[in-house]
Structures are given as structure tokens and as C-alpha cells.
Amino acid sequence: MSSTDSDSDSVAAAWFAAFSSGALAQDSADDSPVSLLAVTSIGAPTITGARNPRNELRIEAYGAIDEANCAIGLARLAISTNPEWARVDATLLCVQNDLFDLGADLCLPATGARPDYEPLRVVQSQVDRLESRIAELSMDLQSLNSFVLPGGSAAAAALHSARATTLRAERRLTDLAAAQGETIGEPAVRYINRLSQMLFVAARYVNRKGEGDILWTPGQKA
């Protein structure tokens, strides 16, 4: 990778980081250029500098990915108390980095034009790695014969909350991918789909490998 490629990827990641942290610029009354890292009341620019309304689908997707990453950060705090969950924490740290890759991917919409550099994209190997973690954690789990209620332990509840937040991010990405004129790489959509599955498996894993799960009782009235 050339230094230009690396710089471009860094800019994309920095833009998403600035969006995630709420970095703002002063509103401008004229048509002066907007800072690359600016999000104003007029709207938020893409990495290319074009303004987008704050509720535009792609901007919604940025925010949903940011929310999922924050929820995973809280889940990591909840599981950090037990060294037996170190493998789960290591996986989640990797996921948090992947989500910044995904944010950078979304910041550079695929237009079909040949770019001057290779943009940072979520790739199939990242999806494969996540699927491997799902398989590894699942091997130790008790089989299920009912739906699981979110909870059982503080750590599991935090992971279930992150799972639900990730599912919302998946819906936003799916909406964006289906929108006319929008394009998202298939690995990006697959990754966010597999992530919610991984968080479900991780929640069961920290619930004493499923022994601490609380199962749904259909029709319970009391």
C-alpha cells in the first residue's frame, strides 16, 4: 500500500471518528467550503465534501454503526471483570476496529468510478473471521429448546443490548443498500449480520456457557 493509499484511508477513518465524537464546525452564512470533519446544522458532508441531510440514509447508517460500537464498548466493560471471558473480549476489541473500517467504507460511497487509490473496505476475510469466532464459542454452549430472554447476568444483558443495537444498524444498512442510487459492498452487509449472531452467542457464553440463560415461557400470565 502506498503512502497515498494509507493517508486516504486515515482520512476516511478520521472522518468517521469525528462524526462519532460529534465534532462540529461553526455554521457558515455564506457558501464557503465546509471542513472535511464538519457536521453543521445545515447537514453533514460525506468524505467527498458533498452535503447530506442529517437524516439521509447514509448518515443514519454512520450513526447506527457508531451506536453499535458504543454498545459493544459498554459490553466489554461488563465482561472485563472475569478473566475466563478474555477470548470474548479480544473478539469484541477486533470487532470495534472492524466497525471503524465499516464506517470508513460507508464514508466513501462506491460510485463505479476507478479511484486514484484503493479505498478502505470491509472484506470477506473479516466476515470469515467473525464466523470462525461464532463457531468456536458455539461449540461450548448448551443446546437451546426455547428463545432466550435478555439477561441472566449483567455481562450477558450488556451483550444482548449490543446485539439489539447491532440489529438496528443492520436495518439501516439494509435500507441504504436498497435505496436507489446507493451502493454498499456485500461483505459490509454480511459482516453486520454476522455480528448480531456473534453477540447472541457471546451472551450465552458468558451466561455460564448457557447454563445461566433465562428461557422464554410462552403465555406466562403470572
From TrEMBL:
<dbReference type="InterPro" id="IPR036451">
    <property type="entry name" value="CblAdoTrfase-like_sf"/>
</dbReference>
<dbReference type="GO" id="GO:0008817">
    <property type="term" value="F:corrinoid adenosyltransferase activity"/>
</dbReference>
<protein>
    <recommendedName>
        <fullName>Corrinoid adenosyltransferase</fullName>
        <ecNumber>2.5.1.17</ecNumber>
    </recommendedName>
</protein>
<dbReference type="InterPro" id="IPR029499">
    <property type="entry name" value="PduO-typ"/>
</dbReference>
<dbReference type="GO" id="GO:0005524">
    <property type="term" value="F:ATP binding"/>
</dbReference>
<keyword id="KW-0808">Transferase</keyword>
<comment type="pathway">
    <text>Cofactor biosynthesis; adenosylcobalamin biosynthesis; adenosylcobalamin from cob(II)yrinate a,c-diamide: step 2/7.</text>
</comment>
<feature type="domain" description="Cobalamin adenosyltransferase-like">
    <location>
        <begin position="47"/>
        <end position="206"/>
    </location>
</feature>
<dbReference type="GO" id="GO:0009236">
    <property type="term" value="P:cobalamin biosynthetic process"/>
</dbReference>
<keyword id="KW-0547">Nucleotide-binding</keyword>
<dbReference type="InterPro" id="IPR016030">
    <property type="entry name" value="CblAdoTrfase-like"/>
</dbReference>
<dbReference type="Pfam" id="PF01923">
    <property type="entry name" value="Cob_adeno_trans"/>
</dbReference>
<feature type="coiled-coil region">
    <location>
        <begin position="120"/>
        <end position="147"/>
    </location>
</feature>
<keyword id="KW-0169">Cobalamin biosynthesis</keyword>
<keyword id="KW-0175">Coiled coil</keyword>
<keyword id="KW-0067">ATP-binding</keyword>
<comment type="similarity">
    <text>Belongs to the Cob(I)alamin adenosyltransferase family.</text>
</comment>
